[in-house]
Amino acid sequence: MSDAGVQARRLLRRQPLGVAGAVVVLGLVIAAIFAPVLAPHGPKDTAFGQFVPPGREFPMGTDNLGRDVLSRVIWGARLSLYVGLASVLVGITIGSLWGIFTGYYGGIADTSSQRIVDCVMALPPIILALSLMAAVGQSVNNVILALTILLTPTAARTLRAVALGVSASPFIEAARAAGTSHLRIVLRHILPNCLATYIVLVTTNISYAIVVEASLSFLGVGAPPDEPSWGGMLTAGTQAMETAPWLIFFPGVAISLAVFALNLLGDAIRDIADPRLRGGLG
Amino acid sequence: MKSRIVTIAVVALLVGASAASFAQQDQPRYGGILTWFDYGDPARLDVHAESPLVVQQATAGVYSGLLHKDPDDPTKIAPDLAERYTASADGRTYTFYLRKGVKWHDGQPFTATDVKATFDRVLNPEFKSPKCGATLKPLVAGTEIVDPHTFQVRLKFPAPDPFLSAVSSAWCRIAAKHVLDKFGDLNKPEAQIGTGPFKFKKYERGSVIEWEKNKDYFIPGLPYLDGVKQFILVGGPTQLAAAKAGRIMLWDTWPPMGKAVSEELKAARGNEIDVYRWPINTIWIVFLNTTKPPFNEPDMRRAVHLALNRQELINKALDGAGVPCAMLDPKLVGEAALPLAEVEKIPGCRPNKDQDIAEAEKLVKKHHPNGIDIEMAFRQVGNYSDRSQLVAAQLRRIGIRGTLKTHESAAGYAAFGKGDFTLITAQDRAMDGTDPSDPFSLIWTTQGGSNYGKWSDPKFDELAERGLKATNKAERAKLYHEAQRHFLNGAPSAIPVGWVEGWFFTDKNLRNYKQSPSAYDNITFMKVWLAR
Q: Taking a C-beta distance cutoff of 8 angstroms, is the pair B74, B179 a contact?
């Protein structure tokens, strides 16, 4: 058996749930990338009959406006992953750099920036996101902006703690004693040691971002109503919950599956990146 | 024999008691609070300056008009603050004889000075009055106080039906001069001082509006209710949940329920409610802004008119409850409406869309070979979201790609009034009455109160004005037919999707509530009472 095969078997044995999550996430990514090919119809195409139950022609039925639910669920994967990835990459990256630099340099900049983080984190996330959306208007990019603002302080707080721990390490003291500049210490020594935490934060927060996007869309302030968002589809489905339950079932399953799979994958990556946390509550 | 007599006596007693109980149930009963809902938060309450239905709902029972729609038969006009009126022989002067002893809710006496102040306000050319002013301005030449209880209106030309329809409109209610002097407008809750059957009690933004009984109401014995409570419920699921839980007693105004929702409600409430289908004298319009690209170009407006599939829109968004493409609904205005058989043959209105869509595509390509991206706006109320998605999907077929932009209800009206939009996907306009001139004065003429797209067509205006002035019914109908043909065969900006109908309910506990031909009328609840 090749090395890759052995490693795969080892990974499967050690992280079976993580592998299962990775498979589902891979499926979602493929659905998102190849949505124009995979979806049988356009996600906004209203040319079909309304409330057609799941069957051969429409495996997930049609909605109240005569759109194919399967096509919208597939296109919804693209929107959810785009929003999740973009907001998490931007938000966690900005927050991480903020936390690492202020944590390393300390002083008034660190104290004041942490008070800002306290203020933002004191607000309930969904209320903050609703207020931001009300202020900036309804669009996919504004959902990303709102999520970025939500995620930045979390990352800043977490990475600051890691940076503080690394800063107190003997090799950093040695680097300082050798006359290495602060910027070089941060870039060459602190940042690489924070990378594992950064990766874990990114993977675990994508599912959070997807849930928040779905919640905002469900409340009518997320993506514009005709965009194929899983949360928006749920809202439309609630109006015919009793007569057309498939309208809430399929997007509901999609959200649950995506979030569960991303959480499993995130946990597995965390365990691999930092074995000390394995089995812990973190 | 004795037992038979006893049996007969018991039966007679039971029958008598049942009859008495039944009779008692049909007798008006005092007390109780009526609960219903507003589909949005009105924010501004000025009945003369605003046009959203929620403003009317919030204030209807607080004010009285000179005339109003008869609460016992809303198809008829009846005296209100004017106990009677007379028209001069030439039909150009109307004299209103006002009730004496009427008091405003703050105790001040009501006189002709208040009526004059109201008319001066809505007729002021500088004052934007999208409903009352829009219908009265083309008609009224001047007003005069004859004595403290007599008021006279001079018309520019004899127009009995449009004038009386306007004066009895719920938007032409009389406001107190001293209140207008004090507040400058009628927007604030404190300024809601009327002569109506209820006093304005409370307005909690986004939550509830309450009225309480006016014990000094000028009609002795009325109202029966102790008060009215209106919950501000935004969004169909919330409204349906309130109806299913029995929190609201009435759903008789915009937005109508769809058929499936009404069936779900009927299943939940069973015999406690009456569900019925009703036309609400309201037209769904797609507005195009003619003052900026791309709809300053007549070809682009024509393309939208041709591409919109009214039958699909009515079927999918209104469960088929509506009259597609008609500018006037024959059911509501009679012979002045273009026959529906003729409407269905006009390009843009005909059910077979292939030819119209091909023509529309050509028109768009002529100006925008790669299509065009625009913003499509709508207020986030009722089922406008669904309607907007359908409109956007239909226009995408001809290369007009829309990004949907939502507005909160009051903010949307403000933006549309200022012309801050490119295309409005769904905006219903409800009529004040059933005179055929109403939709023309309100939507389509250059001076129309809701001419958001600033469309102006001299020939159309001329036909509408001649229709307004015509007193002979047949001649009037002919003029309006010509106006409708001219409009539908041109490049309009306020494009009619269709007249809206839908399903509604009343709680069986609610008595003496009469459905009105206008969504704005008969919601003062002055003669309504609760059986329990």
A: no
Interface check for B411 against chain A (CB to CB < 8 A): the answer is: no
| Structure token digits, residue A59 | 């495996």
When the pLDDT of each residue in chain B is averaged and rounded to a whole number, the result is 93
Q: Which of A239, A243, A247, A248 to mutate to test the interface with B (most CBs of B within 10 A)?
A: A239
Residue with tokens 């250059």: B446
Let me know: does B138 contact B441? Beta carbons within 8 Å. Answer: yes
Short-list A224, A281, A74, CA closest to B425: A224
Sign of CA dihedral B199, B190, B231, B253: positive
Write out the DSSP string of A75-118: HHHHHHHHHHHHHHHHHHHHHHHHHHHHHHH-HHHHHHHHHHHH
Question: Helices B259-269 & B236-244, crossing angle to 10 degrees?
Answer: 20
Question: Phi-psi region for residue B281, left (φ > 0), alpha (ψ -120 to 50) or beta?
Answer: left
CA distance B323 to chain A (A): 19
Q: Check if the beta carbon of residue B506 is closer than 8 Å to that of residue B250.
A: yes
Give per-residue pLDDT as tens, A83-114: 999 999 999 999 999 999 999 988 898 999 89
| E strand or H helix at A257 | helix A246-273
Nearest to A224 among B236, B396, B404 (CB): B404
With CB atoms and an 8 Å threshold, state whether A224 touches B260: no
- β-strands B227-232, B33-38 pairing: parallel
Give the pair of three-digit tokens for residue B519.
């969504």
Q: Quote the CA–CA distance of B384 and B407 in Å, as a whole number.
A: 11
Handedness of CA B325, B331, B337, B341 (dihedral sign): positive
Q: Say how far apart CA B482 and CA B489 lie, in whole Å.
A: 11
- What is the per-residue pLDDT across B435-482, written as a single tens digit (0 to 9) for each? 899 899 889 999 888 999 999 999 999 999 999 889 899 999 999 999
B522 half-sphere exposure, CB direction, 13 A CA radius = 25
Q: For residue B267, give the chain A residue with the closest CA.
A: A242
Q: Residue B180: count other Cβ atoms within 10 Å of its Cβ.
A: 18
Residues, chain A: 282
Q: What are B1-7's contacts with CB under 8 Å, separation 24+?
A: none
Place of tokens 């009328």: B521
Q: Determine how β-strand B140-147 pairs with β-strand B150-155.
A: antiparallel
- Round to whole Å and give the CA distance between B6 and A271: 90
Q: What is residue B402's three-state secondary structure?
A: strand
Are the C-beta atoms of B269 and B257 separated by less than 8 Å?
A: no
Distance CA B468, CA B163 (A): 10
Q: What is the ipTM of this complex?
A: 0.78
> With an 8 Å Cβ cutoff, is B235 touching chain A?
yes
Distances (CA, A) of A78 to A33, A43, A75, A86, A148: 7, 11, 5, 12, 18
Q: What is the pTM of this model?
A: 0.82
Taking CB atoms and an 8 Å limit, are B406 and A238 in contact across chains? no
Mark yes or no for CB contact A44/B393 under 8 Å. Answer: yes
Q: Which residues pair with B73 in a beta bridge?
A: B70
Residue B439 CA to residue B455 CA, distance in Å, equals: 14
Q: A244 — alpha (psi -120 to 50), left (phi > 0) or beta?
A: beta
Query: Which two tokens mark A57?
Result: 């022609």
Of A46, A64, A137, the CB nearest to B393: A46
